[in-house]
Amino acid sequence: MSTGLQVDSAGRLRHFLDVAGLKRQQLVEIMDTAESFSEVADRSIKKVPLLRGKTVVNLFFEASTRTRTTFELAAKRLSADILNLDVSTSATTKGESLLDTLRNLEAMHADMFVVRHAESGAAHFVARHAAPHVGVINAGDGCHAHPTQAMLDMFTIRRVKGEFTPLTVAIVGDILHSRVARSQIHALNTLGVRAVRVIAPQTLLPPQIEQLGVEVHHDIHEGVRDADVIITLRLQRERMDGRLLPSKHEYFQLYGLTETNLATAKADAIVMHPGPINRGVELDSGTADGPRSVILQQVTHGIAIRMAVISMVMAAHTGETTE
Ligand code: CP
Predict the structure, then answer these.
(1) Does domain 2-146+302-318 fall into CATH 3.40.50.1370?
(2) For a substitution probing ligand 1, which of 67, 70, 153, 278 has the most ligand atoms within 8 Å of its CB?
(3) Interval between CA 277 and ligand 1 midpoint (Å)
(4) Alpha-carbon gap, residue 296 to 32, rounded angstroms
């Protein structure tokens, strides 16, 4: 579904909606482009003129700290103009449809929509209905996909570990409701890691998750044993229907990442989390702030990855290169 909509006949990224369906080379190109942009952060004037005169609109219909702000910084560092639509005070609260909102923003000559929405498929819907000159980036849709998060996670892993093929990656937590986990699993398998494990109680795993190419574990000590990378995930209570867990305290006892259960991982294993973190629920403070944690590096890398994706999608619409 995604590939036809997001990649044009020349293989360029017209929209960035999902990691699923993209080829290894396309994921590597995103990371290589991000690598070339990461030095912009070290300049005294943190800007390149690539997207001067272009307008990017952040359309966030769901709460966000990291994704919204790093998209904003990424667009600014590319010299684009950026609008942050405040959905709580926008005309959608007066009954205006999403399509009418889009048409009005297009009438203001928007060139790109960055969309976060609680409904799975929302960014695809926007991409299908946007004007042909407008690129769309998925900033997280329901439980479905969060492709720029997955790519900044891959970029972080590549920066620390170098190669993907020898790696065992363990993802711990609420897989059932996690758009991040779905996108990470697709990206890790496409990049050819040795193994992807998911660790969760049965109630927080989607049915037939094995079909995505993962090993399932219910015991965290076994799940993280000899792992190179451990990704912890937040319990997404806003998406939970009914009681899937006994209590946060009991969840932490069984599935929280601590120095004790981390001891079974490789000595140089890294700890990741897409944020927001809940200390004492999915991991303890010693682990979140400890020497193996790359959680804040993930946030920094989000800017370069989003600069890469914005510039690549914009280039597919203008025929220019990202160089
Ligand atoms: N990781 C992530 O998507 O964080 P935000 O919800 O703060 O954007």
Answers:
(1) yes
(2) 67
(3) 10
(4) 20
Where do the domains of the chain lie?
Answer: 2-146+302-318, 147-299
Q: Give me the pLDDT at residue 242, please.
A: 62
Count CA atoms within 13 Å of residue 237 on its CB side: 10
Strands 81-86 and 55-60: parallel
Residue 37: the pLDDT is 98
Q: 289 versus 248: which is more confidently predicted?
A: 289
Q: Do domains 2-146+302-318 and 147-299 have the same CATH topology?
A: yes
CATH fold group of domain 147-299: Rossmann fold (3.40.50)
Contact residues of ligand 1, CB 6 A cut-off: 64-67, 140, 149, 274-276
Q: Provide the percentage of residues in the chain whose pLDDT is more than 70.
A: 97
Helices 147-161 and 295-318 pack at an angle, to 10 degrees, of 120
| The overall pTM is greater than 0.85 | yes
Q: Which atom of ligand 1 is nearest to the CA of 275?
A: 1
pLDDT tens for each residue of 196-230: 999 999 999 999 999 999 999 999 999 999 999 99
Contact at 8 Å (CB) between 163 and 40?
Answer: no
Write down the H helix ranges in the chain.
2-6, 24-38, 66-77, 98-107, 122-129, 147-161, 179-190, 220-223, 248-255, 259-262, 285-288, 295-318
Sheet containing 215-217, strands listed edge to edge, beginning at the edge strand earlier in sequence: 215-217, 195-199, 168-172, 229-232, 270-272
Helix, coil or strand: residue 126: helix
